[in-house]
Amino acid sequence: MTQARIAPLEPPYSEPVQAALDRITPKGVPPLALFRTLALNERVFLRVMAGGLLDRGSISLRGREIVIDRTCARCGSDYEWGVHVAFFAERVGFTPEQVAATCSPEVSAGAFPERERLLIRLVDALHDEARVGDPLWAALRAEWTEAQLIELIALAGFYHLISFVTNALRIPPEPYGARFPSAGRRAGAGDGRSLPASPGGAS
User: pTM (2 decimals)?
Assistant: First the structure.
């Protein structure tokens, strides 16, 4: 088990932090360690919460999760990838093979439909080069509007930030979180962990 570099904030919380946690956390579910760690710096916590992109946006929930999962996997954020796979993989219809594919160095043509593979290519280009080449951009523009493309790029950027936090601070995985695939072990939800209601915040 990873030892966190900074211990998460414990209650009682300040009024602004408590209000934000009440807004993003279902009743009866402990706030994520990520949220409580960020809350040690109230200014950063409140601005990260305000900048989340998990509300109803211009892209589909499934498309959003492809971008988030691939971004977190490329960044090596076992914590954040695991939270999103646990909460959302089944809801958006990912197969176990697709969950595993989000972590694969090369995503095979059969793992996702071609349109969804464009999202993975977008994430990879942003991660590897911090830019998008003209051929990929043309393919993306044929499938998504300009407003959607802006959201997709911002989403990938936001989850680089979240991955930096979870990795640099060594935040241990949530008890119910999925784990990256390993030899003899299939990635994804449905591995016997109990799963609380989905959080509504910026994780």
Answer: 0.88
